[in-house]
Write a sequence for this structure.
């Protein structure tokens, strides 16, 4: 058995394809529209070549870093992704335990299948909470309060989803929304019978606020003292505006190609995002982050 363990991410992907239903595999694996950005997110890494210097002592390699003051052994953290119970019965609790065992950090998605409280009490992983701005502001503020009182250390506001990406595989598969226990009593998903199309797209259309703007960043600052990170910024202009808005950091991201197709590959714009703010000398202790997720 030991010999058959996957040795790279592509082999894990093959196993996932066998283990999951087509609907769930496509949900996790797919992107928006033509999936150009989805493909380019990976292809762009192939365009970056390494320039090795030799005869350097590599017997001790230190990849440790810190994020908002939290130390970790490498700059790899768990991005917010919804619906972990489609892959494992323990859901986000399993993911949090895995993050804790690596001394890494987990960002819990608003769309978690486990309750905020359950994830918080399962282990001592450092946790941030990912938020959307709902049409009903009370929903967002209740989630923020619960994250605060359960020891989450930052709010990650996803800003690239005023409108849900057109994910054609989900439309074709009539993707069913998985339970969202954190939204029980706040938003009803009972009326989501899909007569056609993607249920999660309809859910997002009914609940998320498409008028999301910089005003909501101000609003969020007014209701929490936790540091705020904006996730989904890909241009220098917006990175600068984020600094001006006083957020603690920016997560350079195109949402894994699941939102706006033909947006640039995340890794290709990381430098632009950071350099633009550096150039103005405003970087200070701001955090710039990009993740590689498959
Ligand atoms: C299955 C799946 C679900 C996701 N759910 C969320 C989510 O609930 N909230 C969010 O902000 N991002 C979500 N994402 C996006 C990831 O956080 C992340 O941005 C993406 O996988 C990697 O692309 P990036 O390097 O451009 O950030 C999801 C991604 C996947 C693959």
């Amino acid at each position: 058995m030991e010999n058959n363990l996957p040795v790279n991410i592509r082999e894990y992907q093959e196993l996932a394809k066998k283990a999951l239903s087509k609907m769930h595999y496509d949900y996790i694996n797919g992107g928006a529209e033509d999936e150009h950005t989805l493909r380019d997110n990976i292809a762009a890494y192939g365009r970056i070549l390494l320039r090795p210097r030799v005869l350097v002592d590599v017997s001790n390699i230190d990849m440790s870093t810190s994020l908002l003051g939290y130390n970790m052994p490498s700059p790899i953290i768990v991005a917010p992704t919804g619906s972990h119970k489609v892959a494992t019965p323990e859901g986000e609790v399993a993911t949090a335990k895995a993050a804790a065992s690596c001394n890494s950090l987990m960002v819990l998605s608003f769309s978690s299948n486990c309750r905020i409280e359950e994830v918080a009490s399962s282990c001592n992983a450092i946790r941030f909470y990912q938020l959307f701005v709902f049409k009903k502001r009370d929903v967002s503020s209740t989630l923020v309060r619960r994250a605060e009182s359960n020891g989450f250390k930052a709010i990650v506001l996803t800003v690239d989803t005023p409108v849900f990406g057109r994910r054609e595989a989900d439309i074709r598969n009539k993707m069913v929304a998985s339970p969202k226990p954190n939204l029980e009593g706040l938003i009803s998903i009972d009326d989501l019978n899909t007569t056609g199309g993607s249920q999660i797209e309809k859910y997002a259309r009914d609940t998320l606020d498409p008028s999301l703007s910089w005003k909501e960043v101000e609003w969020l600052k007014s209701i929490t003292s936790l540091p705020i990170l904006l996730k989904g910024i890909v241009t220098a202009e917006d990175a600068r505006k984020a600094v001006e808005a006083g957020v603690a950091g920016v997560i350079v991201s195109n949402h894994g190609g699941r939102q706006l197709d033909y947006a640039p590959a995340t890794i290709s714009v990381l430098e632009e995002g950071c350099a633009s703010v550096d150039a103005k000398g405003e970087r200070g202790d701001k955090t710039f982050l990009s993740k590689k997720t498959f």
